[in-house]
Amino acid sequence: MTPPGRPCRLVVCRGCCCGTAKKRPGVDHEGQLERLRGLRDGDGREVPVRTSTCLGICFQANVVVVQPSSAGRERGGRPVWIGGFTEDRLIDDLDTWVHDGGPGAAPLPESLAERVTSKDAEKPKKDKKAKKGKKEKKEKKEKKKSGRP
């Protein structure tokens, strides 16, 4: 007998930044996507995975959105946005969480909780001191070239 309702669903960003070696070198992006496509929930149902060309918070690449199952939604679960999803151990933790019910049905593992973000996340502003440091370096370099003390 098929369990009622829908399982959790995943939206995986794979656009200009997420899922690219240019932005996140050293990550097996295709292997990661393949592993995510193999996830099953506690009832043995396949967890649908959809890719998006851009979820809009590129500075937190790679981004995965976990949408609650029907049961999780009934218990108040809402989509959970996870940024910096680049380590294999995170897939293991996501697998366990989804298997246990996901958003609204099971507690979020600490490793994923550390990376929770939102669609409205703003890129952190650069420290003004860091900018000043660059300016000073540039001036120092120009002085050296011109021979001024």
TrEMBL record:
Question: Which superkingdom?
Answer: Bacteria
Q: Where is this region: Disordered?
A: 95-149
Q: Where is the composition biased (Basic residues)?
A: 126-149
Q: Where do Basic and acidic residues bias regions lie?
A: 112-125
Q: What is this protein called?
A: (2Fe-2S) ferredoxin domain-containing protein
Naturally occurring in which organism (per UniProt): Streptomonospora alba
